[in-house]
Design a protein that fits this description.
The chain has helices spanning 3-9, 28-43, 55-58, 76-84, 120-128, 131-143, 170-176, 192-197, 227-236, 259-275, 299-303, 320-331, 357-366, 384-392, 412-421, 435-443, and strands at 26-27, 48-53, 63-64, 66-73, 89-95, 99-104, 109-114, 146-149, 152-157, 160-166, 212-216, 241-244, 280-288, 307-311, 338-339, 370-374, 397-400. By secondary structure, the chain is of the alpha/beta class. The chain has 2 domains: 3-197, Beta Polymerase, domain 2 (2-Layer Sandwich); 212-443, Metal-dependent hydrolases (TIM Barrel, Alpha-Beta Barrel), CATH 3.20.20.140. The strands form 4 sheets. A 7-stranded parallel β-sheet has the order 11-12-13-14-15-16-17. The termini are far apart. 48% of the residues are buried. Residues 1-23 have low confidence and may be disordered. The structure holds zinc ion (ZN).
Length: 446
């Protein structure tokens, strides 16, 4: 059977307009909160029993082309009527009882399907994608004498649709195909089918497993809020420690701190730690890596901090060799704990710096430097494929918000999404540990 035929079995998915825009570029961090809000509103329409986000948004892709929703409703007509007449809708592209598509004022299309409660699992699986993952599942179904589409997984009798095998939940369908459940973030054809067959998929880091955040900027440099406000907000967000990592002196545009101001900040953090209960503030810094790979803060000042993060904020265009050597030299400094936003990319705005990432991963392992997964929606750096690769070198990671105000701790979910897309489990991530364990790890470098 050719790929094309398989695609036809997974009915129309190749031509499906809801799937065609997947390479488009609205940021995950802009789209997901909006989609959650939309779901909440639609869930309150009378008759709605269930509604979930599908598509690349459910897979937590860094950018998305549209919003796909799948619902179960006792009154599909009234749900669709509400959907096409929402205030954000600028154009109705399709209005039916099982499917409607609207164009929203934020520039995105939103596609809502209403399916029967029985086939919710198969519909969710089908509309979550990725396309290639769906095709692979179809192929397995065919090999087992079954057919898979958005209505369910069926036995085949002489080429005709036979008895229903599974459709209520995604898990049932994976089970029937002889696979363990594959999380949406992994459905990208990066080896997940093989691993699911052999039952070697690791349990992914959960969205609730972070205890701390290692990159937070306060109003001492270019952040908007005080250390006190940040600590209180972090605690409300469920964290039990944060590291204050203001910029250092070479970053003059960000009012970077010199040794003297770091010392002064340290005394304030001591006072705040005495005052607060349930949240610990770690003394950190986001130290600039200079052009030659040296750091812009004295060794004595660095050795007094709980956590030293290092970053490239200049000379993005060095040759691959120079950039790699520069970063590795900085990583080899005995006080350095974390390499922040390792590739320096800004999604849709700045490419990754040219560097030999495999060498960087080797150095991270050698010098015991944690690699950051920066969760700021415009960065998501390291990105999914790099995370997956770095893991093979036995690297340790952190997921940090790079907060510049007290609201930004909500970014952590996007970093966790990328970590999951990079196949990470809790053990791979330092800030899933308690503050006591973290201090022990960090202090090995002091
Ligand atoms: Zn930075």
């Amino acid at each position: 059977m050719t790929n094309r035929e398989i695609a036809c079995v997974f009915r129309g998915i190749v031509k499906d307009p809801s799937m065609k825009n997947e390479s488009s570029c609205a940021l995950l961090g802009d789209t997901l909160p909006f989609a959650h809000h939309l779901c909440q509103r639609l869930a309150s329409v009378p008759g709605v029993k269930k509604i979930e986000i599908a598509g690349s948004l459910r897979r937590m892709k860094e950018t998305v082309g549209d919003i796909d929703l799948v619902a179960v409703s006792a009154k599909p007509e009234s749900l669709m009527k509400y959907f096409v007449s929402m205030s954000e809708v600028v154009q109705v592209q399709e209005h039916g009882t099982t499917r409607s598509i609207v164009h929203l004022s934020n520039g995105l299309d939103c596609d809502l399907r209403v399916v029967s409660a029985e086939s919710f699992g198969s519909a969710l699986l089908y509309f979550t994608g990725s396309k290639e993952h769906g095709i692979a599942l179809c192929k397995i179904a065919n090999e087992k004498g079954m057919t898979l589409n958005e209505y369910g997984l069926y036995k085949e009798n002489d080429g005709k649709k036979g008895a229903m095998v599974a459709n209520k939940t995604e898990k049932e369908i994976y089970d029937a195909l002889g696979l363990v459940y594959i999380e949406p973030e992994l459905r990208e054809m990066t080896g997940e089918i093989e691993s699911a067959k052999q039952n070697t998929l690791q349990r992914l880091v959960s969205y609730k497993s972070l205890h701390g955040d290692f990159q937070v900027q306060s109003d001492w440099s270019d952040g908007e809020d005080s250390i006190e406000e940040l600590a209180m907000s972090a605690q409300r967000a469920g964290l039990s420690y944060i590291a204050i990592t203001d910029h250092t002196k070479s970053l003059t545009v960000a009012n970077g701190l010199d040794e003297k101001r770091l010392e002064k900040q340290s005394r304030l953090i001591d006072r705040l730690n005495k005052k607060f209960h349930g949240i610990t503030i770690l003394k950190g810094s986001e130290v600039d890596i200079l052009k030659d790979g040296s750091l812009d803060i004295s060794d004595t000042a660095l050795s007094r901090l709980d956590l030293v993060g290092i970053s490239v904020h200049s000379y993005f265009n060095l040759s691959k060799d120079e950039q790699t050597k520069r970063i590795i030299k900085a990583m080899s400094h005995p006080s350095v704990n974390i390499l922040f936003h390792p590739t320096t990319r800004r999604i849709n705005r700045r490419e990754e710096c040219d560097m030999d990432l495999d060498e960087i991963y080797k150095a991270a392992k050698k010098y015991n430097v944690v690699l950051e997964i920066n969760a700021s929606p415009s960065r998501l750096d390291l990105k999914d494929v790099h995370i997956h690769r770095a893991q093979e070198y036995g690297c340790m990671f952190s997921i940090d918000s790079d907060a510049h105000n007290a609201e930004h701790f909500s970014f952590l979910q996007y970093g966790i999404g990328q970590a999951r897309r990079g196949w990470l489990s809790e053990e791979n991530i330092l800030n899933t540990r308690t503050v006591k364990e973290v201090k022990k790890v960090l202090s090995k470098k002091r």
